[in-house]
Amino acid sequence: MLTDPQAYPSGLAWCCESPWKFMSLFRPNVDRIAGYVPGEQPQTGGWIKLNTNENPYPPSPRVAEAIREASQRLNVYPDPVATRLRRIAADLFGVDADWILPGNGSDEVLTILMRTFVDPRESIAFPYPSYVLYETLAALQGAISRRLPLHRDWSFDLKAAEATVAKAKIVFVPNPNSPSGNLWSSDVLKACVPPRGVLVLDGAYADFASGSTGSELLQSEIGERIVLTRTLSKSYSLAGLRFGFAVAHPDLIAGMRKVKDSYNCDSLSIAAACAALADREWLRQNTSKILATRTRLATALAGLGFEVVPSEANFVWATRRSGGHRDLYEGLKRQQILIRYMRFAGAANFSEDVYDGLRITVGTDAEIDRLLDVMKTLV
Amino acid sequence: MLTDPQAYPSGLAWCCESPWKFMSLFRPNVDRIAGYVPGEQPQTGGWIKLNTNENPYPPSPRVAEAIREASQRLNVYPDPVATRLRRIAADLFGVDADWILPGNGSDEVLTILMRTFVDPRESIAFPYPSYVLYETLAALQGAISRRLPLHRDWSFDLKAAEATVAKAKIVFVPNPNSPSGNLWSSDVLKACVPPRGVLVLDGAYADFASGSTGSELLQSEIGERIVLTRTLSKSYSLAGLRFGFAVAHPDLIAGMRKVKDSYNCDSLSIAAACAALADREWLRQNTSKILATRTRLATALAGLGFEVVPSEANFVWATRRSGGHRDLYEGLKRQQILIRYMRFAGAANFSEDVYDGLRITVGTDAEIDRLLDVMKTLV
Fold first, then answer.
1. Residue B36 or residue B287, greater confidence
2. What is the DSSP string of A116-138?
3. Is the ipTM, as predicted for this complex, more than 0.95?
4. pLDDT reported for residue A1
5. The domain B48-57+282-378 belongs to what CATH superfamily?
6. In chain A, what are the domain boundaries?
7. Tens digit of pLDDT for each residue in A145-172?
8. What is the sign of the dihedral through the CA atoms of B231, B233, B239 and B243?
9. Does the beta-carbon distance from A261 to B107 stay under 8 Å?
10. Do B264 and A75 touch (CB under 8 A)?
11. In chain A, at which end, N or C, are there fewer CB atoms within 10 A of the end residue's CB?
12. Starting from the edge strand earliest in sequence, which strands make up the sheet with A307-308, in order?
């Protein structure tokens, strides 16, 4: 609405320089992008929520205890560099603490990356279809988004990608990818390192993968060009906490630290993240349950006639040759089951003009049973 | 270090286009600014900490209870628009919920404001001396910082400010100001509204003020150009929580919402903030104690020969004609008392080339007694 002066109800937020010239108070980049539409988060009970890749199991019991302790001392500022957390996270990756930058969710880490490395009119690149946020963050920064084409089997079209990678300040690769759940090999990832920028390996779903997600590249000859990002939202069952971090060479972290707000992580989330990261046995048990249910879900969907991409994440991507994906989503929603209907325009190497499908989060066994029961009535 | 290629130990984070040309991976704006140096946060016990305007009293007891409840459901995402919080905050200002934008501390709200309204090479303005963060955020955005000159008594030199205000996309005015603690009248604030931008009234210390901090301007004829910011770090004793919010016309909030991360506030801080904001009686008792101690501190410092600016905040600004402020700060630190020594270069209408002084947070009565005892031995 704000980009159309005729539709604007009041003169005050617009400057009349002359009767013929209107001007928004916002940056043109902000005017241009669409307003944020929150994902479906039903506020009433009774829903089975398989639409935002939340973990259906509770976090480690140590988390609530750490939060209770930290809540006794909230009148003072948090440790601005989260010293203890960085040590714990660094140990997981075999690096020193100065390789870690904590963030208010890995979304904030992605925002910090964009603001650290990419100037207006410079470009970023990412496989398409993948995480839609990269494009939004680039638009906010006034940067150019370029898509790296994928083959129909979700493998990279590396030849077609080469020139785009060469120009990028950041190449973002979610590994495993969303919505597909597939994993790319380290050899493919190496080809995505831009000669004048960094490769960000977005590991939101890395803990669910059976193979390497590329983190060993940190220790390779191109290690100073690699940034790993991690979130506690999925595998640690802490979507409500907003905690993520970057792992990268200390020289890269030093630049990113200049951009972050001084106190970007609060005392409660730092304490909770320390407790969660330290409980390795709980993580193992949690992801084991998800992986078992994922196998069952994928097999059952295949039995119902879906093509299911072999998933290395806590969701599966299901499509049917006959289409009708949106109707299936709507049919499930009428039964209070939320999954994600996704639609990608202009996905180069997919045959359709618009490529769409269903992304289904791996819930509990009972939730998946109910989903499959209803799905059987719809297909 | 990163701006000096000679000093750089490795070639990898620099791109050799030719033997004569080096290039940092970072944005030039990031290279240019100094690295972040965290404030003094001693990690050992025994310190009296009067340097970062933390509140010495605990938050409302309802806060810990709200956190405990919210910690039972951390596996799901927070409400991305913090519906309940916005209603509670809106009621305090007599506006609707769509006038409120919650943030991860008011520092994040300031970052969002900069990224919503200010493009590279546009300008912002703020009184000087005031909060140092405005200048850092502008530098990150590639924007120009301009200082609005103040008279020796901390009143605005409005005539000198006029041309600078006219060019600004945002004018930031902390009211009460830091480090001085003085309050500016609404008439003065009106003169600071930029014709093509917004006036941000940074109310970090507003709850400690006896007079108006300008929030009534929201309802005036220039209300669509005013943004109030609030933090829970000071008056609500929740510096560890990172929670703040903006109050502004819904059209302005809509633009800011496009810029914020989808889930910028976590479930624990939203729940805690709701509990804290709702406990008005606790806020009243807490600020009453601070105000009584502030009066006692200011009187005692005046008795020791300091000029003390009449404070409307939870700190006082003290200077001596004879100077020696840094020595006093060092002397106190040797006795494990931390206050803030501050130094402002090029403060136009102050007589000195470099203007400096001591900012002392109002602690408990016992802490202030100890400070005064040691100060007596130093002056």
1. B287
2. HH--TT-EEEEEESS-THHHHHH
3. no
4. 27
5. Aspartate Aminotransferase, domain 1 (3.90.1150.10)
6. 48-57+282-378, 61-279
7. 999 999 989 999 999 999 999 999 999 9
8. negative
9. yes
10. no
11. N
12. A307-308, A315-319, A354-361, A340-345
